[in-house]
Every structure is written in structure tokens, then in C-alpha cells.
């Protein structure tokens, strides 16, 4: 069956489904078609939701938190039993208070201090497979690096704890709705235990201490203990799945475009722009949900109070109004404005950490696995929902030597 | 050339001072240091300023080109 025939079986304009096989399999074509012909799509799944696609409209909805609230949840259909995802599912001023307390731990300047530590983790993971000449880059690198960086630099918790949590984080982010609830609860339990432990220790002035200190809610009361645990839990789960997805997409590009791979190896000054462009092309987050608080029109569609509205960041990153030939990798685009880290007050707080992990991975891969290529018989498949993740990435390369113990 | 930084729209993506260092600077929380105010672009840095402004995902930076040529009466 051709792509066109299969896609024709679902009307993505009036019967859209983020979690559908049709969207997952025909992703590039569906996004392009939505951008061209359907600025606002509709879904009949669950309680139903709208999807806003063009960058200008996505920006407007994401920035206008008064009209499009986050308090009814980031999922178009919220899985049962999931604890509140904070500070994603709150509005200013409570949201602003949290960001005010946490932003300083994620600035460009602050994150630059992590570089040596990130490089050591990158090298340690590459050491695990470099002698064999092949690996599954998702399972053996992309899925592992973000959690390790998070544990070492932000939580300052033992890496052994992370080894126990890898599957739970995976289920929380990419599991079925039945798996997600329990997985989030398990993460919540671990984080709560760690926060309790840290509360007994002298303060370190770090990210965890800022969470323990807490902030005031919208009523001026100090926030609850549960809210603190929920904030820390989101940082762990938010850091891992998204960055893993971005690393996987970047390495898939290198492994399947040898001319770009070799050009990047010869032009290290272009790495930052290349990372930005690969992020734009492969948005890890497809979108998040808002809820209309009043009657409002966006791109010709009228929303009523209570309507769920997904902002399609992945589509916004490919809007032909903003980018010529949006599906082409062009690191020399004259502006890099993109929606890949979200827009408005909820834009990703960890964007600079993600960029650092991507750039450091890129440098070490080009240096240590210079002929990395997709395995001859490999078929790359994805899982798509609010995130889009590569399932497996079998690659081959000329075996090399380990560089040593990072710990 | 002058610029203004919208204090509500700037959320600290950091693209402006990453791509146009010396024109835009960061504050301690990662926002544009001149959020909510305006400033003058140093002569010769106009191109860099425009790149930084156009790369703002929130479109929070407005560039105002000040006319340097006298405007003729019929223009």
C-alpha cells in the first residue's frame, strides 16, 4: 500500500489522532498537509481536541496564557492516576514564581559549567560499545545520556539509582496510557524519597535546594510538599525523553547522510547551527495541550470555553511561511527562530542543557566514530504521541579504543 | 538603529545573546538584560542585532531603523 493510500484512510483534518498509526507512519506528509491546508485540525479522540499548526498561530496560543490556560492539563486526554505535572500544568503567577526560583540553574552561563562532566558521560557511553563496531544508538546512548547528566549535575544523586529507574522513565514518557500512570507514580516515589534525604542534609545551594525552599502559590501561601515533589519529578521525566529523542534524530541524520557527517567533521564552527537545525527538523515534542477560557477565534476556527487546544510545535518548526524548503537540512538558514523548545511562559527551561548535550555528543561522535553509518538492513521506526521517539537505531562504525573511566 | 525588548514576551530562550553577543546580554536568570526597556545598537553591529532579533522565538525584540538619509519633500 502506498503512503497516499494509507493516509487516505484517515482524514487528518477532521479526525486527527496524535497517537494513531497513520500519523506515526506518515508523519512528514501529514504535518506538511496540515500546514498547507488545515491551520486548525480537529480530533474526535476521548473528549476531543483541536490542533493548531501554523507557527504564528501556535505562538499566539502559547503566549496568551490567560485565554489558553494550562491548569486543565498538558495532555489532550489526561491518563488516569497521573499526578499533577508541575510547573507545566499551572498558570502565572504561581508558574512565574517557580520559574523565578529555577531559571538561574539553567542559564547558558550555568549550563556551560557542566561541559566537562557531560563530555565524560558521553565518552563513557561510547566506551561501552566502541570496540564492537556496532550498537543500537538509541538504547545504548541516546536513552541513557540525558538521565546520567541529570543525575550527576542536577540531582547529584547516585548513578546506581538511575539504573533502576531507566524502564520506569521510559514507561512514564512513551508507555501506553495504562503504563503511564503507575510509572509516574513510581518516579514520584523515588523523587520524594530523595527530597526527604536531601532535606536532612546541609544545603548545597543547588537546584534541589531551590525546590526544597519552594515558592508561594497564587494565594500567597507557601506551596505544598506534594507540589515540590511534582516539580522535581517533571524535571527528571522532562529531561530524559525529549533529549533522548533529539540525540536519536541527530545521530540518524549523521548515520544516513555521510556527506553532512563529513562536512560537520571538517567544520566544527558549524556545530551549533547544525544542532539548532536538526532540532527544528526533528522536534522531540509534537505538542502540548491548553484549554480555552473564553470564546475566541484562531485561524478561522471558533473555540468555546473548555475546548482543548493542542499547540503543534513540530508543525510550527516546519512552517513554509517561515522556512524555505522546510524539510531540508540547511544549517546556514539566515535565522534560526524555531518553536522546538515551545513558546510562551512554559518554554523549555532546560533548552541550554539539551543543546550542550547535543553539541558535545556531536563532537565526540564525529571524533570517535567518524564513519558511523546506518546498518545495511536497518529499518527505522518511530513511536509518536506528545513526543516522537526513534525506537531503535542500529549503526555500524570502525571499532576504536576506549578512553577510560569517567567516575 | 534602536531596539526594544518586550518584558512580557521575553522568556529567556537566550537566542539573542547567543547569536548577537555584545549587542544583547543576559541577566542572572537568563533573560535579556534589557527586558522591558530599549537601547541603541552600536554603529557597525546592525546586521548582528537584526540576526539576534529575528532569531527570538517569541518575537520579543523590535528593531527600529532610524532614518539616516534626509527625507525629501516629495518622498
List the topology elements.
The complex is a heterodimer of chains A (407) and B (75).
Chain A: H1 3-8, H2 21-25, H3 27-37, E1 40-43, E2 49-52, H4 55-63, E3 68-69, H5 94-102, H6 108-112, H7 115-127, E4 134-136, H8 137-142, H9 145-155, H10 159-174, H11 177-199, H12 207-213, H13 225-256, H14 258-266, H15 271-281, E5 287-292, E6 296-298, E7 301-303, E8 308-312, H16 313-316, H17 351-368, E9 373-374, E10 382-384, E11 388-390, E12 394-396
Helix pairs in contact in A: 7-9, 7-17, 9-13, 10-11, 10-13, 11-13, 13-17, 15-17
Chain B: E1 2-5, H1 15-19, E2 38-40, H2 46-54, E3 61-64
Antiparallel strand pairs in B: 1-2, 1-3
**Total strand segments of chain B:** 3
| Amino- and carboxy-terminal Cα gap of chain B | 21 Å
Q: How many domain regions of chain A?
A: 1
Radius of gyration of chain B: 13 Å
Instruction: Write out the CATH superfamily name of chain A.
Output: Cytochrome P450
Provide the succession of SSEs of chain B: EHEHE
> What is the overall silhouette of chain A?
globular
Short description:
Chain A has 407 residues and is α+β, with helices and mostly antiparallel strands.
Summary tags:
heterodimer; A: 407 residues; alpha+beta; Cytochrome p450; five-stranded mixed sheet; three-stranded antiparallel sheet; globular; B: 75 residues; Alpha-Beta Plaits; 2 helices
